[in-house]
Predict the structure of Metal ABC transporter ATP-binding protein.
Amino acid sequence: MTATDLDLPEPVVAAEGIVAAYGGRPVLHGVTLRVAAGEVVAILGANGSGKSTLTRSVLGLLQPRRGEIRLFGTPLRRFRDWHRIGYVPQRLDAGGGVPATVREVVASGRLARRGFLGRNRPADREAVSAALADVGLTDRAGDPVRTLSGGQQQRVLIARALAGEPDLLVLDEPTAGVDAASQEAFAATLHRFVGRGGTVLLVAHELGPLAPLISRAVVVHHGEIVHSGPVPEPAGHHAAPDHDHVHPHAPYDRPGIWDAP
Ligand SMILES: Nc1ncnc2c1ncn2[C@@H]1O[C@H](COP(=O)(O)OP(=O)(O)OP(=O)(O)O)[C@@H](O)[C@H]1O
């Protein structure tokens, strides 16, 4: 623990010494990650470096072999305030074959607030409308989700997370495969969320318009954190405008993914 860590109040996320493996294959080798209230932390790294595994461990979706996780100061095994967390998983088809409307999918983000048999109160309807407006989908509220484009469906998932009025948003590659306009819209949404006092943990390959919002970048490489600080500059040809991915074989500390700041 460093002097800086000692200065921090109780972090929103505290993952200490996380060791995770699939079968016999280790994926995280004792990772420690703390996210303070109000931070916007980006987890960066090559494909397969362990970013999603770390995120899913933090949310209790995956049981690590070793280590301790606390959310809002409470050990994960005792944590019940899931309404305080909004999670947007890695891109998926939000609609599938289901005829649910945009509003219905977004409203499902209120369930943790309402309780299983809770009534749909005006506050719920207001939160859903506010979330739809936040992502610019008010005029599509009554449309079946499957009629929306991939980028718009991603916005539906983000609105669903926002509808729960969380204190922490966890997003796994929220802008992957999303067009530039939608990325800009998402950056604006995130900016408003952070302005309201929210905390963000997001996994990303490319930050694009999100870069100015990031207060700290954490680079995962082969299951270890190799950098925690300012967003590193993409290096060499990886900085080229047409280069939109990082290479799994390019080590962090040699010419390749990121230059150390
Ligand atoms: N359910 C699983 N079963 C077995 N192996 C898995 C599983 N999920 C991930 N892995 C493996 O664990 C390693 C880390 O995967 P993870 O998804 O955490 O990486 P990532 O950094 O999020 O990658 P990407 O950028 O491609 O999403 C990879 O080698 C991956 O193949």
User: Anything to note?
Assistant: Residues 92-166 form one domain.
